[in-house]
Write a structure and sequence with these properties.
With 144 residues, the chain is α+β, with helices and mostly antiparallel strands. 37% of the residues lie in helices and 14% in strands. The longest helix is centred in the C-terminal third of the chain and has 23 residues. The relative contact order is 0.12.
Length: 144
């Protein structure tokens, strides 16, 4: 992961436009990003994340850690939520896609916050159903 931090009074897009795009220039250090999972740009107040191949329009906020939480777009939500150890490992392992279906090379795509929450909720639901099947192998045993 690479984090570009700007001063709190600066717009975080400046971190993308003025720094990240410069680092990725073939004459600077683009090879330093080849094994990078994702990029974070923050000014201490706001924060967005994307991948090495993301355009600015594809950088997004991490808004919440559970479906029922009220959304928040500040840097603290991203740092405490997305960068929590378990969630960070989950993102790296399960939510990065390499897409070479378009001309111009392979794109690295990182899931958005709502996609991570939705997929993890769906997987947890399937696991719960499987556990219930083990506990109640005969569906007639379950009565309301």
């Amino acid at each position: 992961m690479f984090i570009e931090l700007k001063a709190v009074y600066k717009n975080i897009r400046a971190g993308f436009d003025n720094n990240l795009t410069w680092y990725l220039d073939p004459n600077v250090v683009p090879h330093a990003f080849h094994h990078n999972a994702f990029l974070v740009v923050s000014n201490g107040d706001k924060a967005c994340y994307g991948s090495i191949t993301s355009k600015w329009d594809h950088f997004v906020e991490w808004k919440r850690n559970a479906e029922k939480e009220k959304g928040c777009v500040d840097a603290e939500a991203l740092l405490d939520g997305m960068l929590n150890r378990e969630r960070l490992l989950d993102l790296v392992e399960n939510f990065i896609l390499f897409d070479d279906s378009r001309a111009g090379g392979t794109r690295k795509i990182v899931a958005r916050n709502h996609q991570v929450l939705g997929v993890n909720n769906a997987v947890a639901s399937v696991w719960r159903q499987e556990e219930l099947k083990k506990l109640y192998p005969d569906p007639l045993m379950i009565r309301c």
